[in-house]
Amino acid sequence: SLAIVLSFGIRGFYFIFFELRWQGTTPGKRLLGLRVIDRHGGRLRPGAIFARNLMREVELFMPITPADVG
């Protein structure tokens, strides 16, 4: 469980740090000429960046599965 928590922290920090500092890009996105924008084409606010990256983790570690009916 410690490895999972550390992995979450490192990945979360990486994406949040770069998207906040590099105007919506990470090193990979910058290499490809991509950046994350809001629906109006502007920069994301810090709250949107945190929410976006938290949802990435939820989708990765808690995939949608059928409810156990029983």
Describe this structure in words.
With 70 residues, the chain is mostly helical. Helices cover 60% and strands 0% of the residues. The longest helix has 20 residues, at 2-21.
Overall radius of gyration: 15 Å
Main beta sheet strand tally, sense and closure: none
**E-strand count:** 0
- Residues in β-strands, percent: under 5%
- Whole-number mean pLDDT: 82
What form results from the Cα inertia axes? globular
Tally the helices. Answer: 3
Query: What order do the helices and strands follow?
Result: HHH
Percent helix? 55-70%
Distance between the termini: 28 Å
**Class based on secondary structure composition and strand pairing:** mainly alpha
Features:
single chain; mainly alpha; 0% strand
Lay out the secondary structure.
Blueprint lengths: L1 H20 L5 H6 L13 H16 L9
Helix pairs in contact: 1-3
A few lines on this structure:
The protein has 70 residues and is mostly helical. 60% of the residues lie in helices and 0% in strands.
